[in-house]
Amino acid sequence: MRYKKITPDNSVFVILSFEGPDLYSQAGGLGFRVTELSEALAKKGFETHVIFVGDPYIDSGQIDSYFSHLA
Fold it and tell me: What are the domain boundaries of the chain?
């Protein structure tokens, strides 16, 4: 079986995170690593989405126009 190379043309990354973009999570925990991973994928041209599973009463929003959004 031949595997195709993963490229921005044939792949979309969706990252499900239980830690949000708040400052506490960005202090070296999972939230920090999710941010770094999503930024790295986006800089390589991959469509990358970060889905935060958390408080449904907090507004979702765009983190940065070039790489990901929160939903």
Answer: 12-69
